[in-house]
Amino acid sequence: MAFGVGNGYVAGMSCPSLTGPVGLTVLGSGSNGNALVLQAAGFTLLIDAGFSGIELRRRLEAAGLAAVRIDAMLVTHEHDDHVKGLRVTAKHFTAPAYCSRLTGEALRSRGDAPETLHLFTPGAAFALGPFEISPFSIPHDAIDPVAFGIQIGAFKLGLATDLGHVSHLVARHLRDCDLLLVESNHDLKMLRDSARPWNLKKRILGNHGHLSNDACADLLRQVLHPRTRHLVLAHASRDCNRSDLAEACARQCIASLGRTDLVPMVARQDACLPTLWL
Prior knowledge:
Helix content is 28%, strand content 25%. By secondary structure, the chain is α/β, with parallel strands linked by helices. It has one domain: Metallo-beta-lactamase, Chain A (4-Layer Sandwich), CATH 3.60.15.10. A hairpin with a 2-residue loop joins strand 8 (126-128) and strand 9 (131-137).
Protein backbone atom coordinates (compact mmCIF):
# COMPACT_ATOMS: atom_id res chain seq x y z
CA MET A 1 0.00 0.00 0.00
CA ALA A 2 1.31 3.43 -0.89
CA PHE A 3 0.89 5.70 2.12
CA GLY A 4 1.57 9.36 1.44
CA VAL A 5 3.74 11.14 -1.05
CA GLY A 6 7.40 11.80 -0.34
CA ASN A 7 7.45 12.74 3.34
CA GLY A 8 3.81 11.76 3.67
CA TYR A 9 2.15 15.04 2.76
CA VAL A 10 0.65 16.57 -0.34
CA ALA A 11 2.66 19.59 -1.42
CA GLY A 12 0.75 22.85 -1.81
CA MET A 13 0.67 24.19 -5.35
CA SER A 14 -1.25 26.67 -7.46
CA CYS A 15 -4.61 25.80 -8.94
CA PRO A 16 -4.88 25.55 -12.74
CA SER A 17 -7.32 27.88 -14.50
CA LEU A 18 -10.89 26.71 -14.90
CA THR A 19 -12.76 26.14 -18.14
CA GLY A 20 -16.39 25.04 -18.07
CA PRO A 21 -19.01 24.82 -15.31
CA VAL A 22 -18.63 23.50 -11.77
CA GLY A 23 -21.11 20.90 -10.54
CA LEU A 24 -21.83 19.50 -7.07
CA THR A 25 -23.99 16.41 -6.65
CA VAL A 26 -25.05 15.18 -3.21
CA LEU A 27 -25.35 11.40 -3.56
CA GLY A 28 -26.75 11.15 -0.05
CA SER A 29 -26.26 12.64 3.39
CA GLY A 30 -27.17 11.52 6.89
CA SER A 31 -26.06 9.29 9.73
CA ASN A 32 -26.26 6.20 7.49
CA GLY A 33 -23.98 7.47 4.72
CA ASN A 34 -22.49 10.56 3.11
CA ALA A 35 -21.01 11.16 -0.34
CA LEU A 36 -20.62 14.17 -2.66
CA VAL A 37 -19.37 14.44 -6.23
CA LEU A 38 -17.63 17.60 -7.41
CA GLN A 39 -16.91 18.09 -11.13
CA ALA A 40 -15.03 20.75 -13.08
CA ALA A 41 -12.80 20.89 -16.17
CA GLY A 42 -13.12 17.16 -16.80
CA PHE A 43 -11.93 16.25 -13.28
CA THR A 44 -14.16 14.52 -10.73
CA LEU A 45 -13.73 14.40 -6.96
CA LEU A 46 -15.64 12.10 -4.62
CA ILE A 47 -15.85 13.68 -1.18
CA ASP A 48 -16.46 10.94 1.41
CA ALA A 49 -17.59 7.43 0.54
CA GLY A 50 -20.02 6.54 3.29
CA PHE A 51 -21.99 3.96 1.31
CA SER A 52 -20.92 0.52 0.14
CA GLY A 53 -19.13 0.38 -3.18
CA ILE A 54 -22.17 -1.16 -4.86
CA GLU A 55 -24.51 1.47 -3.39
CA LEU A 56 -22.19 4.31 -4.40
CA ARG A 57 -22.15 3.11 -7.99
CA ARG A 58 -25.94 2.74 -7.93
CA ARG A 59 -26.27 6.32 -6.73
CA LEU A 60 -23.86 7.58 -9.36
CA GLU A 61 -26.05 5.92 -11.99
CA ALA A 62 -29.22 7.39 -10.45
CA ALA A 63 -27.60 10.84 -10.58
CA GLY A 64 -26.77 10.42 -14.26
CA LEU A 65 -23.07 10.01 -13.48
CA ALA A 66 -22.61 6.35 -14.35
CA ALA A 67 -20.11 7.22 -17.10
CA VAL A 68 -18.08 9.53 -14.87
CA ARG A 69 -14.67 8.39 -13.72
CA ILE A 70 -13.68 9.32 -10.16
CA ASP A 71 -10.21 10.88 -10.39
CA ALA A 72 -9.55 11.36 -6.67
CA MET A 73 -11.27 11.04 -3.29
CA LEU A 74 -11.29 13.31 -0.23
CA VAL A 75 -11.99 12.06 3.30
CA THR A 76 -13.33 14.29 6.09
CA HIS A 77 -12.89 11.79 8.96
CA GLU A 78 -12.84 8.10 9.80
CA HIS A 79 -16.44 7.49 10.93
CA ASP A 80 -18.11 4.67 9.04
CA ASP A 81 -20.85 6.84 7.53
CA HIS A 82 -18.09 8.69 5.68
CA VAL A 83 -15.70 5.87 4.70
CA LYS A 84 -17.73 2.66 4.41
CA GLY A 85 -17.05 2.32 0.69
CA LEU A 86 -13.71 4.12 0.54
CA ARG A 87 -11.35 1.20 -0.05
CA VAL A 88 -13.60 -0.63 -2.51
CA THR A 89 -14.47 2.51 -4.48
CA ALA A 90 -10.84 3.65 -4.66
CA LYS A 91 -9.90 0.24 -6.04
CA HIS A 92 -12.78 0.23 -8.55
CA PHE A 93 -11.75 3.60 -10.03
CA THR A 94 -8.01 3.21 -9.35
CA ALA A 95 -8.34 6.56 -7.61
CA PRO A 96 -6.06 7.98 -4.91
CA ALA A 97 -7.59 9.10 -1.62
CA TYR A 98 -6.53 12.10 0.46
CA CYS A 99 -6.92 12.57 4.21
CA SER A 100 -5.14 13.94 7.26
CA ARG A 101 -2.29 11.93 8.81
CA LEU A 102 -4.22 10.89 11.94
CA THR A 103 -7.26 9.91 9.90
CA GLY A 104 -5.00 7.89 7.61
CA GLU A 105 -3.47 6.09 10.57
CA ALA A 106 -6.93 5.22 11.87
CA LEU A 107 -8.01 3.87 8.49
CA ARG A 108 -4.83 1.89 8.11
CA SER A 109 -5.06 0.39 11.61
CA ARG A 110 -8.49 -1.07 10.96
CA GLY A 111 -7.85 -2.17 7.35
CA ASP A 112 -10.02 0.48 5.68
CA ALA A 113 -7.23 2.41 3.94
CA PRO A 114 -7.18 2.25 0.12
CA GLU A 115 -4.09 1.20 -1.82
CA THR A 116 -3.02 4.77 -2.57
CA LEU A 117 -3.55 7.13 0.34
CA HIS A 118 -2.02 10.61 0.31
CA LEU A 119 -1.82 12.79 3.40
CA PHE A 120 -2.58 16.47 3.79
CA THR A 121 -2.12 18.85 6.69
CA PRO A 122 -5.20 20.74 7.92
CA GLY A 123 -4.55 24.40 7.25
CA ALA A 124 -2.32 23.77 4.23
CA ALA A 125 -3.94 24.15 0.80
CA PHE A 126 -3.12 21.81 -2.07
CA ALA A 127 -4.29 21.32 -5.65
CA LEU A 128 -6.12 18.42 -7.24
CA GLY A 129 -6.87 18.94 -10.92
CA PRO A 130 -8.63 22.33 -11.18
CA PHE A 131 -9.48 22.39 -7.47
CA GLU A 132 -7.54 24.20 -4.77
CA ILE A 133 -8.42 22.32 -1.59
CA SER A 134 -8.21 24.06 1.79
CA PRO A 135 -8.84 21.51 4.56
CA PHE A 136 -9.54 23.01 7.98
CA SER A 137 -10.09 21.48 11.40
CA ILE A 138 -13.60 21.23 12.83
CA PRO A 139 -14.88 20.31 16.32
CA HIS A 140 -16.25 16.76 16.18
CA ASP A 141 -15.68 13.56 18.13
CA ALA A 142 -13.40 12.00 15.53
CA ILE A 143 -9.62 11.67 15.51
CA ASP A 144 -8.79 14.60 13.20
CA PRO A 145 -11.96 15.75 11.41
CA VAL A 146 -11.84 18.38 8.68
CA ALA A 147 -14.13 20.34 6.42
CA PHE A 148 -13.16 21.87 3.09
CA GLY A 149 -13.03 25.23 1.42
CA ILE A 150 -12.56 24.62 -2.29
CA GLN A 151 -11.59 27.22 -4.87
CA ILE A 152 -12.21 26.55 -8.57
CA GLY A 153 -11.27 29.49 -10.73
CA ALA A 154 -13.39 32.40 -9.50
CA PHE A 155 -15.76 30.13 -7.56
CA LYS A 156 -15.55 29.15 -3.90
CA LEU A 157 -17.34 26.25 -2.20
CA GLY A 158 -17.63 25.63 1.53
CA LEU A 159 -18.44 22.09 2.68
CA ALA A 160 -18.82 21.49 6.42
CA THR A 161 -20.76 18.81 8.29
CA ASP A 162 -20.18 16.88 11.53
CA LEU A 163 -19.32 19.75 13.83
CA GLY A 164 -20.56 20.50 17.33
CA HIS A 165 -20.13 24.26 17.23
CA VAL A 166 -19.02 27.02 14.89
CA SER A 167 -15.49 28.09 15.74
CA HIS A 168 -13.90 31.28 14.41
CA LEU A 169 -11.86 29.08 12.07
CA VAL A 170 -14.98 27.44 10.66
CA ALA A 171 -16.74 30.77 10.11
CA ARG A 172 -13.66 32.25 8.43
CA HIS A 173 -13.37 29.42 5.92
CA LEU A 174 -17.09 29.40 5.08
CA ARG A 175 -17.43 33.11 4.34
CA ASP A 176 -17.79 34.48 0.80
CA CYS A 177 -18.84 31.16 -0.78
CA ASP A 178 -20.76 30.78 -4.02
CA LEU A 179 -22.03 27.40 -2.78
CA LEU A 180 -22.44 26.32 0.84
CA LEU A 181 -23.14 22.82 2.12
CA VAL A 182 -23.53 22.89 5.90
CA GLU A 183 -24.87 20.67 8.62
CA SER A 184 -28.42 21.01 9.93
CA ASN A 185 -28.55 17.80 11.90
CA HIS A 186 -31.36 17.93 14.44
CA ASP A 187 -34.34 19.79 15.79
CA LEU A 188 -33.64 20.51 19.46
CA LYS A 189 -37.12 19.60 20.67
CA MET A 190 -37.27 16.40 18.64
CA LEU A 191 -33.88 15.33 19.98
CA ARG A 192 -34.72 16.12 23.61
CA ASP A 193 -38.11 14.37 23.34
CA SER A 194 -36.67 11.33 21.58
CA ALA A 195 -36.18 7.90 23.14
CA ARG A 196 -32.43 8.06 22.55
CA PRO A 197 -30.21 7.38 25.58
CA TRP A 198 -29.12 10.49 27.48
CA ASN A 199 -25.45 9.79 26.74
CA LEU A 200 -26.17 9.91 23.01
CA LYS A 201 -28.21 13.10 23.36
CA LYS A 202 -25.38 14.65 25.36
CA ARG A 203 -22.87 13.68 22.67
CA ILE A 204 -24.97 15.17 19.86
CA LEU A 205 -25.64 18.38 21.79
CA GLY A 206 -22.02 18.76 22.90
CA ASN A 207 -19.32 21.00 21.47
CA HIS A 208 -17.97 18.06 19.46
CA GLY A 209 -21.31 16.67 18.31
CA HIS A 210 -23.61 17.99 15.57
CA LEU A 211 -25.21 21.32 14.66
CA SER A 212 -28.91 21.78 15.35
CA ASN A 213 -31.18 23.58 12.90
CA ASP A 214 -30.92 26.67 15.12
CA ALA A 215 -27.12 26.46 15.26
CA CYS A 216 -27.06 26.12 11.49
CA ALA A 217 -29.10 29.31 11.21
CA ASP A 218 -26.60 31.05 13.49
CA LEU A 219 -23.83 29.87 11.18
CA LEU A 220 -25.66 31.22 8.14
CA ARG A 221 -25.99 34.63 9.78
CA GLN A 222 -22.21 34.74 10.08
CA VAL A 223 -21.21 33.49 6.64
CA LEU A 224 -23.90 34.11 4.02
CA HIS A 225 -22.68 36.50 1.35
CA PRO A 226 -24.44 38.24 -1.56
CA ARG A 227 -22.47 35.97 -3.91
CA THR A 228 -23.90 32.80 -2.29
CA ARG A 229 -26.06 31.20 -4.99
CA HIS A 230 -26.66 27.71 -3.58
CA LEU A 231 -27.26 26.44 -0.04
CA VAL A 232 -27.53 22.77 0.90
CA LEU A 233 -28.52 21.63 4.40
CA ALA A 234 -26.90 18.26 5.08
CA HIS A 235 -26.47 15.38 7.54
CA ALA A 236 -30.04 15.58 8.87
CA SER A 237 -30.94 13.07 11.58
CA ARG A 238 -33.43 10.44 10.47
CA ASP A 239 -35.14 10.30 13.89
CA CYS A 240 -34.59 13.78 15.32
CA ASN A 241 -35.21 16.11 12.38
CA ARG A 242 -37.54 16.67 9.46
CA SER A 243 -36.65 18.26 6.16
CA ASP A 244 -39.48 20.78 6.49
CA LEU A 245 -38.21 21.90 9.92
CA ALA A 246 -34.62 22.28 8.71
CA GLU A 247 -35.74 24.16 5.60
CA ALA A 248 -38.12 26.45 7.51
CA CYS A 249 -35.42 27.40 10.01
CA ALA A 250 -32.95 28.22 7.23
CA ARG A 251 -35.59 30.12 5.22
CA GLN A 252 -36.45 32.28 8.23
CA CYS A 253 -32.78 33.09 8.72
CA ILE A 254 -32.26 33.88 5.03
CA ALA A 255 -35.33 36.13 4.98
CA SER A 256 -34.05 38.03 8.03
CA LEU A 257 -30.90 38.78 6.04
CA GLY A 258 -32.93 40.26 3.19
CA ARG A 259 -32.22 37.45 0.75
CA THR A 260 -35.29 36.61 -1.33
CA ASP A 261 -33.36 34.83 -4.09
CA LEU A 262 -31.69 32.00 -2.12
CA VAL A 263 -33.67 28.78 -1.65
CA PRO A 264 -32.16 26.14 0.65
CA MET A 265 -32.15 22.50 -0.42
CA VAL A 266 -32.22 19.70 2.15
CA ALA A 267 -30.00 16.72 1.34
CA ARG A 268 -31.64 13.31 1.61
CA GLN A 269 -30.35 10.08 3.07
CA ASP A 270 -32.19 7.82 0.65
CA ALA A 271 -31.61 9.59 -2.67
CA CYS A 272 -29.37 12.03 -4.51
CA LEU A 273 -30.14 15.70 -5.11
CA PRO A 274 -30.11 17.28 -8.57
CA THR A 275 -26.66 18.57 -9.50
CA LEU A 276 -26.05 22.20 -8.55
CA TRP A 277 -24.09 24.16 -11.14
CA LEU A 278 -21.96 27.28 -10.91
